[in-house]
Specification:
single chain; 347 residues; alpha/beta; Arc Repressor Mutant, subunit A; 2 domains; 13-stranded mixed sheet; 3-stranded mixed sheet; 4 helices
């Protein structure tokens, strides 16, 4: 009787699987009699799961709440969605209402209920359409949002957060990159980039990482990398020439095209005038005729200031000499002549 049952089970399995052999390679079909691969599952989900695992296997194991774990692998054929997740028993991440069409989730207690969403890592959630959440405890909660890192929230449409304790704060088309301690680093308006790095910033514009700008920790302005050991081809300048050129420049107030002149006004020279005046030295070109390099602008100002100082020093020196000469002449005039009587009128 036992043998008969075993044969019956084998025959039923062969019928359901629709196993067929093509050449030297066996192909197994489930739900189809014409498998197209070594394992072909047609019109049905694929589900694999473990028995309950010890609570100690939980990466966030809490002895006070010792819940058993399960590891699951599932293909939702009707939603074209895939899950490869571990979770505490009863969490419910594999419930149909938590599965977004065309979504993917892998890791520990990862959720992707959004259309075309992806969640990877530990306790990440992607609810927005085509959103992506990776890392630990990240949330991509708006369409096309991207969240990566730890405790990162991208809840503005087409927004990006990368880092720890960061959020786009519901602002669309925004970007946050960095870390914060004791608070959340976040946007306060849409279409804004916010960055926070307590160690400062460095931007290099050459492959040797020797030219660029830096914002040191605690700084409030960019510092130009200006180490004398990183410079060469020094050439003297004529400060008086600089003063004359500045005196001939057309300096005005203005606004950029497209800006509201009632709100955005500026002072200063035109790049063309600045380049015409200071764009060449004995070695080559300085800048271009459409932009003004802030370091060069500061350098021109310092050269002009130095020339004014020297001019004033010379003027002061000349004045001191003239004053001394006048004092000497006055002293001679005021001094009585020796050997001459002074007539005193008596009335």
């Amino acid at each position: 009787m036992g043998t008969f049952k075993n044969w019956g089970r084998a025959a039923l399995a062969a019928l359901v699987l629709g196993m067929s052999a093509q050449g030297a390679y066996a192909q197994v079909g489930i739900g189809t009699e014409t498998p197209q691969a070594k394992l072909h599952l047609h019109d049905g989900s694929l589900f694999g799961t473990t028995s309950d695992q010890p609570a100690e296997n939980d990466p966030f194991y809490d002895p006070g709440i010792p819940l058993a774990m399960q590891n699951n692998l599932r293909w939702f054929y009707d939603k074209s969605a895939f899950r490869s997740v571990g979770e505490r028993v009863g969490t419910g991440s594999l419930e149909p209402q938590n599965i977004g069409a065309f979504s993917f989730a892998s890791g520990y207690e990862t959720w992707a209920p959004g259309l075309g969403a992806t969640a990877l890592g530990l306790r990440t959630t992607a609810t927005g359409t085509s959103s992506l959440a990776i890392g630990y405890s990240t949330l991509a909660a708006a369409s096309y949002a991207f969240a990566a890192g730890s405790n990162a929230i991208a809840n503005g449409g087409t927004s990006v957060v990368i880092g720890e304790n960061v959020s786009t704060n519901g602002r669309d088309y925004s970007f946050v990159f960095g870390t914060a301690t004791g608070k959340t680093l976040s946007n306060d308006i849409a279409r804004q980039m916010v960055m926070g790095f307590s160690g400062g910033y460095k931007f290099f514009s050459n492959s040797a990482a020797s030219i660029g700008v830096a914002l040191p920790a605690g700084g409030n302005a960019w510092s130009v990398i200006s180490d004398v050991n990183k410079k060469e081809n020094f050439a003297p300048v004529n400060g008086e020439d600089f003063l004359q050129k500045i005196g001939q420049m057309n300096l005005t107030s203005w606004n950029y095209k497209g800006q509201d002149p009632k709100q955005f006004r500026h002072y200063g020279p035109m790049a063309q005038d600045f380049y015409a005046a200071f764009g060449k030295d004995e070695y080559g070109t300085v800048g271009n005729d459409t932009t003004i390099n802030q370091a060069d602008f500061d350098g021109v100002n310092l050269i002009a200031i130095q020339a004014l100082i020297r001019r004033m020093e010379q003027i002061n020196s000349d004045l001191r000499q003239e004053i001394a000469s006048l004092k000497a002449e006055m002293a001679i005039r005021d001094k009585p002549s020796r050997g001459k009587r002074v007539l005193v009128s008596k009335k």
